[in-house]
Amino acid sequence: MFRQAGQDRFLLDLRRGAHDSLRQALKPERLERAVGVLYVPATERVSHYFEASLPDQFDAYLWFEKTRAVTPIRDGDLSLPADHPFAP
User: Measured between alpha carbons, how far is 41 from 52 in angstroms, rounded to an integer?
Assistant: First the structure.
């Protein structure tokens, strides 16, 4: 649905009063996949998806048509201040 809007990226304010007609259009529950779950084909639909209403669950929605993986940080790649919690 958001891809069909034709925008590469956008921020949608879903708080009451911001875009009430749009909130109403997005209110019907749709399937949402839980974050951080493992793919188990036999139970995928039952255990990893649930019904959710976008404007009832979130204050805002960010859309990015294209993303890319982050580059992992390797040991020694960072110069952290001595008082940083993860400093060596």
Answer: 22
* Domain hosting residue 43, numbered range: 3-64
Model confidence pLDDT, tens digit, residues 35-47: 888 888 888 888 8
The SS3 assignment for 52 reads strand
Asked, for residue 76, whether it belongs to a domain, the answer is no
Tell me 5's DSSP state.
Answer: G
CB 73 within 8 A of CB 44: no
Number of domains in the chain: 1
Residue 47 tokens read as 């255990």
82 assigned to some structural domain: no
| Structure tokens belonging to residue 54 | 């976008």
